[in-house]
Every structure is written in structure tokens, then in C-alpha cells.
Amino acid sequence: MAIVSFPRRLAELAEADPGRIAVTCGEDTITRAELEQRADRLARELALDGVVSGAMVTIALPNSIDWFVAVVACWKLGATPQPVSSRLPERELAAIVELADPPVVLGVAADAFPGRVCRPTTAVAIATAVATGGGPEPDPLDPLPDVISPAWKAPTSGGSTGRPKLIVAGMSASIEGDDRPVLLLDPDGCLVMPGPLYHNGPIVWSCTALIHGCHVVVLPRFDAEATLAAIERHRGDVVYLVPTMMKRIWRLPIDTRERFDLSSLRVAWHLAEPCPPWLKDAWIEWLGPERIYELYGGTEAQTATIISGTEWLAHRGSVGRPAEGTVMIADDSGAEVPAGIRGEVWMRSVGGAATYRYVGAEARAMTGGWESLGDLGWLDDDGYLYLGDRMTDMILTGGSNVYPAEVEAALQEHEGVHSCAVIGLPDDDLGHRVHAIVEADPDQLDVAELLEFLGARLVRYKVPRSVEIVDEPLRDDAGKVRRGALRAERIGGAA
């Protein structure tokens, strides 16, 4: 079966229907043909900047049409898009750039990284020259070579060491010629994406929809009412959500929420963090169980489970039934445990294919191709997977991962902090909030100043929402801290 590169696929879509809208962001739109032209121009300039097949290009752009232009331009050169938040503090971005080693960084000031080409936007000189009559249109008879990026994306993640890591996709930027859309997408449909495009879920849903010819409607930033308005206005048939978004939509005044026509909506996906059963019940009652779908899996993509609302009602609390041989529950020794017994969730891909590689970290793995993301869970007698708490101390807040070690490393830089521990505490809106416990002299430490200090070092969602000052050491002589015990003391229950 013929393998088609992402650039070739997008070119075919543009040839078939050049005037069809490819992407909408706010009031801005771009057609398939316009996306081709802009991405082609940017790709040519990136090539002059030193971007070659296999290289990464760090993309620090907000949700926008520019973001898609940048990603497609990378694919046209066989390069790997490496998206990051446009609001990353300078130091955190520098650590990621060091790992990715890109010849070009998009979305930063021209002098941000000496020795690398830095472009604030995707605007290119050739486009400006054409618009002003100062230069020729690129020769349509001299197309860029058709290449396939060896990895189609390389998003970032925090690390348990307090350092970021890249998760480089094991899949190339290609599809089989007659591939049908996955993720319940329809080639004639419209995806509404309110999530940030530097996160893996939004990347996967948005790019998959684009490659398969869907209209992709991206919100500049999440807004509960605007999400419903976008579904109505663009006749969205698929929407991507995380439970925090679902809560904020559900908490709109009922007359506001029910004012919008959602009859076009076939599928409401939710993922990235556990969904409280009460909230899932509410959405099932509102939209119907046949429209609610949940996906569980990591950016590493060893495997994934999917469960519909209808299935969930018969297996309340489950995240779905994994493919045979792809999930195992094991005890502390690595031995498989029977159904109904809680243990660590281990995953592997079908056939053992490599689905990713880390840059800046090592996988938690054991023989047999099994890898763990640190989740605890169990399987029932029917093979359905249920998740408990994270085995590690990672905090899921508003659909984003926060590793305590990273926040603690920033806290420890402050001269007024003697020791510290960061934990997640339950939060009705975010699922969990980042809570910092700080050993310090309360007369010498101003909390507002401390948060400002952290804001210069951490992206906003990693900055603690609450800070507690204590006067006893939080770590033992070996520098260890029992975060589970600290959390249990504050919310009740066993450590």
C-alpha cells in the first residue's frame, strides 16, 4: 500500500478543493491553498536558515494560524516540529532548546539564542517582497522535494528529575494512501480545539484532523462560552476537552449553556486527567452517552484505551479495555497480579514497535518490552482498566503535568527557603492544585514576592496556587521527602 508524506497529502487536499477553509482561529481563516503557499514560502526560508531533514524546529507560537504554517513548513523539509508554550520563562525555554538543538527557533526575539536563527513570527522575506512587488513569486515549476519527516512531532514534558524532556514520536510524518481518519473524525467534518497546541493531545487531534481534510477550528485560548459558540457557528462535529474545561462549561449559567445549538456535535472527547464521575454523569445526561468518549494513554503512545459513555455506564470508572497483551498490572517486584488487585500499570505496543524516544530522560522499563508511566490501577474480570493515584508524585492540574521536583528546584533557589515540598491537593476546578510547603522564617519570607520569583522561572500553571509556611525540616538527612505523607496529613487518609 502506498505511503504518502504529510506534505503530499496536504498538497492533494489543496489541489482537490483549494478554497476550502483548512484552519480557523478566532476571526482568522486560511484556505487549503493559502496554507500550502505560506508553508512553502516559510519552508524555503527555513532551508536557507539551515533546517534539514531530521532536524528539530522549536515552535514557541501561541494558538494561531501561524502555528499550523510553521508545523507544515517543518514537514515540507523533513524536519520535526518541536512545539512549546509561547509563555515559557526564558530559562525553561533555554533548557528545552539545549535538548532539541534546533537551527531555528520560531516565536522568540531575533537575538534570543545566539548561534541560532530566531524568528518572532512565520512572516518571511519572500512573502513581503511579493506583496510589495519587490520580488518574484516562487517558481511553481520548482517544487520542494517530497520528503518524510522521520518523527512527525516532538512535544515536551516535565521530568521527575526537575528537568524537561522531549518525547520524540516514533511515527514518521506519513500515512497510508487510503487511511481512514482515526479519533472518530470525519473528512467532511469540523474539529473544535480549545486546548493549547503545545500539549500532545491538541497536537494529535488538530494535526490528524488537518491531514485528513477536516476544518480545524482552534480557539486562541480556552473560554467555556466561546467553545460552545464555536461548535454552533462552525457546525463542529468533534470537540476535544479535558475535565477542567468540562467543569467550566458545565458551570455556565444553564440558560447560557443551553442557548447554543450543539446538534452537529457527534463526539466530545475528554482525556489528559481523570474525570470525576459526577461530571461525566452530568455530560452523559446533557449530551447523551453515545457522544462522550474518553481516551487514556501517554504521549509515549505505547498503547491507549478508549471508552464510550455507553460502555462507561456499564463499567463505571473504567478508562476502557486495552488490546490484548498491551497492559499488565504488576506488584512491586514486577510480577503480574490477578484481576481486581491494584498495582502499577505497565504498557507495551502491539508487536513491540518503538512508539517514541526520550531526549533528556530514560524510560522506566522492564523485560518483555513493558514500560510504566507511573500510574496505579487494576483490571476487572472483563479486562477493563481502572486507574488509581499516580505512583509517582506527578500532579495533574487542569490537564497539565507538573512534576514536584521541578517546582522544588525553583523554590530552593530563593534565599529565604530552607527546604520545601510540593504536592497536589484536590481542587474543584483544576482537579488538583499545586501546593508548596516551605520551611522558612515567616518574618523573612514574603509569599507574594516568592510567587513573583517563581513566575520568572516556571510557566504559569506550574507556579503554586497556595503556599504554606512551616518551621520544621521537610527532608531527612538523605534529602528525602515523603510527599504522600504530607498530602495525607492535609486531606486525610493514609499516606
Write a brief caption for the model.
With 495 residues, the protein is α/β, with parallel strands linked by helices. It is built from 14 helices and 28 strands.
Terminal CA distance reads: 54 Å
Name the CATH class of the largest domain: Alpha Beta
Beta-strand content: 25-35%
- Spatial strand arrangement across the major sheet: 3-2-12-11-13-14-15-16
Annotation, overall tally of beta strands: 28
| C-alpha-based Rg, rounded | 23 Å
Count of discrete structural domains: 3
Q: Tell me about the biggest sheet?
A: 8 strands, mixed
Q: Categorize the overall geometry.
A: globular
Low-confidence stretches: 126-136
Approximately how much helix is present in the residues? 25-40%
CATH fold assignment of the largest domain: Rossmann fold
**Which architecture of the largest domain per CATH?**
3-Layer(aba) Sandwich
What structural class should be given to the helix and strand makeup?
Answer: alpha/beta
How would you state the average pLDDT, rounded? 91
Assign the CATH superfamily of the largest domain.
Answer: ANL, N-terminal domain
Summed up, the helix count is 14
Quaternary state reads single chain
Describe this entry's structure for a reader.
The protein has 495 residues and is α/β, with parallel strands linked by helices. The strands form seven sheets. An eight-stranded mixed sheet has the order 3-2-12-11-13-14-15-16, sandwiched between helices. Strands 17, 18, 19, 21, 22 and 23 form a six-stranded antiparallel sheet that branches. Helix 2 crosses helix 3 (65-76) and helix 7 packs across helix 8.
